[in-house]
Request: fold
Amino acid sequence: MPVRLRITLLFGSIVLLILLFVCGSVYYFSKTERTKDIRLRLENRAITRARLLRHPNLFDQNQLRIIDSSTMMSLKDKTLQAYNYLGEKVYSYSEELEDTLTVDNSILDDARVKGTVYFRIGKKEAVAYHYVDENMRVVVVAAAYDEMGLNKLQQLRNILLLSFLTGTIIAFAGGYFFSGRLLQPIKKIADDINEISAQELNRRIQAGKVNDEWQYLSETLNQLLNRLQESFDMQRRFIANASHELSTPLTSISSQLEVALQKEREAGSYREVMKSVYQDVRHLGKLTQTLLEFAQASGNAGGLAIEPVRIDEIILALPADVNKLNPDYTVSLGFGDMPPEEEALIVYGNAALLFLAVRNIVVNACKYSSDHKAMVRLDTADHEMVISVEDRGIGIPEHELKYIFQPFYRVDHAGSTGGFGLGLSLAHRIIKLHKGNITVQSSPGEGTLFCIQLPSAKF
Reply:
């Protein structure tokens, strides 16, 4: 069901219920008031008739009938009857000559017990009132047809019914109209999104000037488009750089083999060619392995084997592993105030990836230092572990700091050190995957300091 129709039905249903409640309440209270009014008037008439009947010497029955005919003019088909304690009729008046009430003795008995009983006889409403004094005990029955009151109640019912139907139609029509106006920005946003493609990610949705939910939605979608565009641009750069990095050793291998096969050569020449090809193959293998690691770190945490990891054990394993990569590389370790409980040194994550991230930063520090030395320090802060990696190397210019975590990016003056430009980008993605943060401070010619912050599993 379309959203516009759902909103219309919901709005119309709510208004319908409100109208039903209001109209029903008005009719119910009006009907109740009419009933109370006619009963009160009939009861007063019965009381008056009973008091007059106690003075038969002053008022004979003909005079009483004349009085009854001139009272309660708004009521129709009036009837008054009085019964003594034996159930005998002692007085009777009817507006119509042949209009006589037949009152059941049980009603008279109830009136003698309860004092006043209300009941209906046909279309008439009636009251039986028991009057008692030292001279007389009588039950007076007064009945009448409230034509005017019922007609007014019928008119009110018709007016309320017409108002209810009209209000319901207006509510549904208004709901349909205003829901269309309400959803118009959504349609415009959807139309703008439909016109945006991978080739036109630079287009954005018009957010409008009114500070409302639609503007918030537009801004949120624009932020999403910004992230998508950034991801697409990064992907394009990554593919271009990866293709270049992969094609370079492949081209070198192909060229060397092609030259070697053009004519017969001595065994020594073939050996030199094979050595060169072997170096290119190793380079290609390292690049492929790095790209695989990069792809793994670019996934999501749900696809990783997450388990408690002792961060101090990762730090302690660095010196031997880095020295194995290059015997000239050395790593010095330092530890701040370590907590007495082991749980404070545990983080949740993938041990292999975390070790790879820290090792990449440490290897970079050794690679770009003249003494090939990196200082690694572990500290505990509020709810997190802080790993600091410092070197006394060439440093990074300030204008290049914002690019160092991009894939295949290499600082201008670091070209002679080799590498693929994926180490820092890989480390950055791994740390982000573990809900951590990595910052860098550097001064050219003085060195660089990397700080890795990881949330502790204890909190």
About this structure: The mean pLDDT is 80. The chain has three domains: 3-153, 213-297, 301-455. The radius of gyration is 50 Å. Residues 331 and 374 are 5 Å apart (CA to CA).
